[in-house]
């Protein structure tokens, strides 16, 4: 760890059937949706691990619920700290993660969702550099195609208002976050848009994206093959 190290918190939940990816589960079944969620977590952790050395990231897993540590650790496959964090409301939980990370990594802190299996590691490196170069008002955001975001990074507690209650998991999250940032005088750097997989129609995008990137997301590729094999059997 150096003075330039950026803290990265991977936010994770155990991929349990009936709880994980419920919108997907309505179309493909609870077991298949949980299998995909587990694969997304595995590939997301691998992406963070690939970026950690070149980008000087210190990675930790922040998980909920309290009994989920063993399940998540078995999938992450990295020797990272496992930290329980649940403030009830999503924004409060995210800010708690960032606040804890900033206390140990004043160069910057980021949180990333665990369902982004195709993020290039270089994008995490770009996010880290934005925070290092920025001042206390710097914010970095990775937009997602559904109108939200999959990663956000901050330099100081001046960003706390971005995590006040809002209609999370809706198409207006990014726009509201940018509005709040402007009101607080924060400087936002937008990373390349990414795509998470929440809805049944997202699976078509996932198949195409995997076909275009043959070496990427091996766990997700295998889970999708299991799904498609089952559908065809």
UniProtKB/TrEMBL annotation:
SUPFAM superfamilies the UniProt entry points to: Nucleotide-diphospho-sugar transferases
Biological source species: Phreatobacter cathodiphilus
Source species, domain of life: Bacteria
Pfam families per UniProt: DUF2064
Protein name: Glycosyltransferase
Taxonomic lineage: Bacteria, Pseudomonadati, Pseudomonadota, Alphaproteobacteria, Hyphomicrobiales
InterPro entries given in the database record: Nucleotide-diphossugar_trans (IPR029044), Trfase_1_rSAM/seldom-assoc (IPR018641)
């Amino acid at each position: 760890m150096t003075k330039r190290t950026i803290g990265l918190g991977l936010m994770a939940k155990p991929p349990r059937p009936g709880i994980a990816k419920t919108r997907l589960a309505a179309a493909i079944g609870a077991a298949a949706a949980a299998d995909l969620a587990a694969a997304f977590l595995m590939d997301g952790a691998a992406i963070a691990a690939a970026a950690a050395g070149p980008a000087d990231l210190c990675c930790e897993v922040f998980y909920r619920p309290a009994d989920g540590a063993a399940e998540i650790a078995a999938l992450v496959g990295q020797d990272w700290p496992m930290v329980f964090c649940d403030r009830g409301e999503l924004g409060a939980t995210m800010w708690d993660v960032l606040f804890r990370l900033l206390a140990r990594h004043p160069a910057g802190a980021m949180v990333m969702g665990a369902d982004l299996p195709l993020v290039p590691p270089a994008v995490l490196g770009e996010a880290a550099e934005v925070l290092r170069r920025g001042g206390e008002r710097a914010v970095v955001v990775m937009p997602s195609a559904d109108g939200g975001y999959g990663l956000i990074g901050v330099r100081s507690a001046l960003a706390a208002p971005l995590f006040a209650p809002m209609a999370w998991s809706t198409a207006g999250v990014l726009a509201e976050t940018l509005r709040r940032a402007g009101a607080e005088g924060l400087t936002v750097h937008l990373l390349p848009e990414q795509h998470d997989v929440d809805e049944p129609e997202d699976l078509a995008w996932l198949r195409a994206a995997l076909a275009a990137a043959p070496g990427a997301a091996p766990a997700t590729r295998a889970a999708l093959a299991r799904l498609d094999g089952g559908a065809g059997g």
